[in-house]
Each structure stands twice: as structure tokens, then as C-alpha cells.
Amino acid sequence: MYMQSIRTFFYCLKQGLRSIFHNGMFSLASIGTIAASLFLLGLFYFVTSNVNFAVKEAEQNVGVTVLFVEDCPEETIEHIGEEIKKRAEVARVEFVSAEEAWETFRTESLNEELAATFGEDNPLEDSASYEVFLNDVSMQSVLIRFIEGLEGVRRVNALDGVAESMEGISRMITVISVAIIVILVAVAIFLIRMTVSIGISVRKEEISIMNLIGATDFFVRFPFVVEGVTLGICGALLPLGILHLIYGKVIEYLTGEFESVFQRMAFLSGHDVFMKLTPLLLGIGVLIGWFGSTSSTRKQLKKISLR
Amino acid sequence: MAEYDLHKDLQNIQAPVIHFDHVSKDYQKGIHAIEDISFSINKGEFVFIVGSSGSGKSTLIRLMLREILPTRGKVYVASRELSRLRRHQISKYRRSIGVVFQDFRLLKDRNAYENVAFAQRVVEVPPAEIKKKVPRMLSMVGLSEKYKAFPSELSGGEQQRVALARALVNNPVILLADEPTGNLDPKNSWEIMHLLEEVNRRGTTVVVVTHNHEVVDMMQKRVITLRNGRIISDEQKGGYVHAKY
Q1: What are the tens digits of pLDDT across the range B37-88?
Q2: Which residues in chain A touch residue B103, judged by CB atoms under 8 angstroms apart?
Q3: Under 8 Å between Cβ of B59 and B30
Q4: Which residues of B touch A213 (CB under 8 A)?
């Protein structure tokens, strides 16, 4: 029984693969459409995953600066720090003394000659501050309102909307890519259905004889499912290969040609991208092939079936 | 309903192997292909079903194959009502029925051997058994020498013999033949009828739908005659009823 099932499985597999070559042009068209859809999906995935990665990086580095009123007592500063740390959206709080603030400003923004004119004076002596880093950048405005309400706080500085706008871009790309992919996947399913339908009409006589002789549903249908799923897998492997080849080169090109724009942006490694993209594209390819072939088989075989 | 095994069911059967109980079939509302037909066929019988075109002969074959269902009445094979068979039982049921058509219905891209082997492969017979059984069947129908020939290289009579070998290779309990000599010359027609007679002698119930009155008259078997979808005569050792058309 076990051997019989294995034999039948391989027989159906052979019939399905034979059918792909039999319907040469339609098979190529199906593979081409699936490949085009999945190639675009791969490209959008590159963009969205890298933007999301950059947003996450930004979230970790974008903070708000809390400045205190003049001659603010140390206890009040400590109290402010503790109140801020209690907030759920706060990842960490770092105290920057007036001396540290001046030192950073002097080394990063002034030339030596100009810095020397200040001597031992610290023009930022009232600029001690807290650097507050968030774990959820969308809560930034809520946090700012909270901090502004605390006693002893003079001002809260934040880079308005940097992270938000990055998230917005990421969302927009996702929406556009989903819309385009849905259309392409629908076209791919339609083409697979056409290919399988042609395969069925070519083998109409054989199928009606199979029905008369007593073939099971599985025996009649499975070769067509094999055909559809194989087309889906080929349609996924092709763009995966191309995307694999171009990913590193694209990153290299962007960081080289548009250094000023992309120099500070963090990119995912090829390994990280393809760990998720490979099963995703293969899964979608298999699903497109399976759905296209089963729906077509159901419809077409009803016309031939003697049951 | 349990697994359908016609071979097993027929071993101890006392009732008729085929039984039509007041069966009618309407393809369109008000147009009856057959109307209120009742008859029985016993195990091991050889029966001709005759009648002019449109008399309902092929509808009977299609009902026996469970290709269509009756509009009214019941069709029983080995005491099982065919309309009650579940989808997965239908394929099992058809494995016990051999069928031969006027137009042979051979696969044109496969040779004689592969056409017969195909019937075994479809019902998942092990390859070793196929290799033993197919040459035996081709030899039985007198085509051992032509096992490599494709349908286009065979005469009508030879193609019908391949079709017959294919119908018999799975040891059917019942053999249904729908106009098996319709496309054949008299010599080939007789050869096919002798083969069917031989199959019947070995115990298979044979039902032949035909127009061929010479064959029917000569063979002196049971003859059920249809006209306008109704049985007008059912005679043991009968002949073709010419005068009534």
C-alpha cells in the first residue's frame, strides 16, 4: 500500500512535469509573470525592510534634551530625572553636565582659536541637561508634554518629526507595494489557471478515459497541482537569484554614488534580508501555483468528469 | 456505505447483477431519453440491447456506468443502488466494469502496449504485474505482434481489439460495449463478437448495445429491444426486431 502510494506519487509528479514542457509557451508566460511579481515584491521588501531597520536605528539614537531653569537645585534635577525614568516609553536617561555640554560643543563646533578666547569660562554653565532616549518614538510628543509640565524644566528640545516622517515613508512604501503586488499576484494566478486549463483540454480524452477506468480524484488532479506548484516555485527562484546578485551591488552603489544621503544610513546585511525573503517568496510562489491550479482543475474537470 | 468491491459482492450474489427498477431519464424537462424501464440481467448473461438511434440504448450504458443518474427509478448493480454511491466509491465501482466504445477511445500518443498498461497504471497496479498481464491480454485479442504499434498504424478492428484488451485487463465483472462493431467491416465485426463471446464464456457478464442486426440474429442471445425510450421486447435467444421500425 505504502509502495503503491509512492509509485502513484512519482507517476503523477512525472505527468505534471511533462505537462509543463507540453505547454511550453504558457508555462514560460506563467513563470515570467510570477517572477516579475515576486521580483517587485523583493525590491519593495528591500526598501521597506531597510527603511524599517533605519527607523529602528534612529529610534535608538534620536532623543529629547531637557534643560533646567537657572540655578535649579540639584534635588529638583534628580527628581525630574526620576519622574522621566518612570515613563514606559523611555528607554534610558543620560545626565549631561554643563562642563560636558561645553566640552562637546567646543570640540565639535568651534575651532581651536575661537575656543581659546573663552579661556576657563563656560558659556553653557546653565546648560546641564538630560538626554532622554525613547523605545517608542511615536510617543515623543506625549513625553515632551509631560516633561514640560514638571517643575524646574526650562525647555525641551527635540528633532521634530524625524522618526515620524521615516515611519510615514515606510508605511507609504508598504501600502503602495502591497497594492501593486496584489495586482501582479492576481495576474499570475490568472495565467497559471490558463496554463492548467490548456493542459486539461489537451489531456481531455485521457482524463475521460481515466474516469471511465476508475482513476481516483487524486490520480486525475494531482499532476495539475504539481504543474501549478512547480511553475510557482520556478517563478520564485528566478527573482530570488537575480535579487541575490544585485542586493550587495545596489547597496555599494548607493553608499558610493550618494554618499552624502546614505552614508549615515544603516543597511541590513544580505544574509539578514534573504533569511526572510527566501521563504517568503518561495511560500508565495507555491501558494500562487497551488491556488491557480486547484481552482482551475476544479472548474475544468467538472466539465469532463463523469461523477 | 462500505468500500465498493463488486468482485466480492458478486461471489455470493443470488439477485440479478444488473437491475433497472422503473427507470426514467429526462435530459430536458419533458423530453424522455428512457421512460419507466425495468429489466434484470443475471450473472454470466450475454445481452444485446438494440433499437434505432435515439431509442435510449446509450443512455442505459451511461446509467450503468454511473456517468449519469436516473431522473426517476433506481439502478442496482450487485444489489447496490448506484445513485447512493459516494464520490470516492464511484472510481472503485468503475474498476469492476469494462467498457468498449464505437470510436475505441484510445490514447493516440501511446502504442498498443501503453494503452492497455495505462488502464492498469490508473488503478495503481504494480509495474511487475503490468508487465505480466498486458502481453497476456494483447495475446488474447490476437495483437501480440503489434504491441508497439500506435493507433494510427492499426486498422479499425485492431484498434477495437486494443480497446477490448484495455477493458478486460482489470478483470471486470461486467463488460459494457457501446456499438463495438459500429466502425468495423463484417469480418472484423465477427472477430470482435467472437472475442466478446469468449469473454462471456469465461464468466464475465456482457452487455452489448448495437445496431448490427446480422450479428444479433446470428448469435441467438438475449435481446432487449427499445423504441422511443421504452422496452418493446425482451427475448431469450432473440433476433433483431426489424418489422417494428
Answers
A1: 999 999 999 999 998 888 889 899 999 999 899 999 999 998 889 999 988 8
A2: none
A3: no
A4: 94-95, 118-119, 122-123, 166, 170
Give, in order, the Cα–Cα distances in Å from B85 to each of B38, B75, B131, B207: 20, 11, 32, 22
Q: Are B207 and B41 in contact (CB under 8 A)?
A: yes
Which residues of chain A make contact with B66, given a CB cutoff of 8 A? Answer: 306-307
Judged by DSSP in three states, B195 sits in helix
Which residue is it, cell 527603511? A51
Neighbours of A79 (CB within 10 A): 14
Contact present, B12 and B98 (Cβ < 8 Å):
no
What is the arithmetic mean of pLDDT over A231-244? 92
What is the grid cell recorded at B34? 428512457
Q: Which amino acid is at A47?
A: V
Specify the higher pLDDT residue, A197 or A245: A245
Burial class (CB in 10 A: 0-12, 13-18, 19+), B145: exposed
**At how many degrees (to 10) do helices A217-257 and A204-213 cross?**
140
Q: What is the DSSP string of A54-91?
A: HHHHHHHH-EEEEEE-TT--HHHHHHHHHHHHTSTTEE
**Span A163-187, average pLDDT:** 75
- A101 and A128 Cβ atoms separated by less than 8 Å: yes
Q: Does residue B242 have a pLDDT over 60?
A: no
CB distance A140 to A148 below 8 Å: no
Task: Name the minimum distance, in Å, from the CA of A279 to any CA of chain B.
Answer: 35
Q: B72 is written with which cell numbers? A: 426517476
Q: Which residue has the higher pLDDT, B184 or A241?
A: A241
pLDDT-derived band at A41, boundaries 50, 70, 90 = confident
Phi, psi (deg, nearest 5) at residue A169: -60, -45
CB atoms within 10 A of CB B231: 21
Q: What is the DSSP letter of B2?
A: P
Asked if A205's CB is within 8 angstroms of B93's CB, the reply is no
| Strand extents, DSSP E, B64-154 | 72-77, 80-81, 97-101
pLDDT(A138) > 90: no
Give the residue numbers in A contacting B (CB under 8 Å), as ranges: 3-4, 7-8, 11, 205-206, 208-217, 219, 306-307
Q: Scanning every residue of chain A, which has its alpha carbon at the shortest distance from the alpha carbon of B116?
A: A213
Cell 517568496, located at residue: A281
Q: Which residues pair with B80 in a beta bridge?
A: B77
β-bridge mates for residue B208, sequence order: B48, B177
